[in-house]
Amino acid sequence: MSRKKKDWKTEKDRVLNMSLEERRKEYRRSEYVPLDQINTWKQSQSTEEEEEGKDLLRDKVSLYKGDITILEVDAIVNAVNG
């Protein structure tokens, strides 16, 4: 195994074993937005339509407008047409 891959795996293990408070101490900025403060697409909609028993995409996807560098999330998808 290459040194680069080994270093990556070591760092991944280190971070995964940290508590949330320990991870936050390593952030480069003191300002962040946790995931529970970001509404899902469904929560952002103004209608009260409810579809019982369905696992919908709008329950899992969040739309965020702002500085994405302060989001405390695992992944960001930025789709661009161009």
Overall 3D shape: elongated
Poorly predicted segments: none
In terms of structural class, how would the helical and strand content be classed? mainly alpha
The number of domains is 1
List keywords for this structure.
3 helices; 82 residues; two-stranded parallel sheet; Macro domain-containing protein; 29% helix; Macro_dom-like
Q: How would you describe this structure to a colleague?
A:
The chain has about 80 residues and is mostly helical. It has one domain (about 10-70). It has three helices and two strands. The chain has helices at about 5-15, 20-25, 40-45; strands at about 35, 70. The chain has a two-stranded parallel ribbon. α3 (about 40-45) links the parallel β1 (about 35) and β2 (about 70). The longest helix has 14 residues, at about 5-15. The radius of gyration is 17 Å and the shape is elongated. The N and C termini lie far apart (about 40 Å). About 0% of the residues are buried.
